Predict the structure.
Amino acid sequence: MNESPTGWRKSSYSAQQVTCVEVGRIEGDWRKSSRSHQISACVEVAPTSYGAAVRDSKDRDAGYFTTTADQWRLFVTAVKAGRFEV
């Protein structure tokens, strides 16, 4: 993917550098899957302007990864189809 998703921006300190840190914004609250019930060790997801952010509920300080809307939709479809052990 050559193009940055909507919502990402370079630091103002990066000037014309190609390799620099970009920051994005999580646009909603983190939530656990409705299928996790009372389990405390699960995955949490939050919407972003371009897809979703995903983190481990046991270790929220460890960070998160992001996906595009298409990647998230394909993943959820695969889970619902039983393609993974969950």
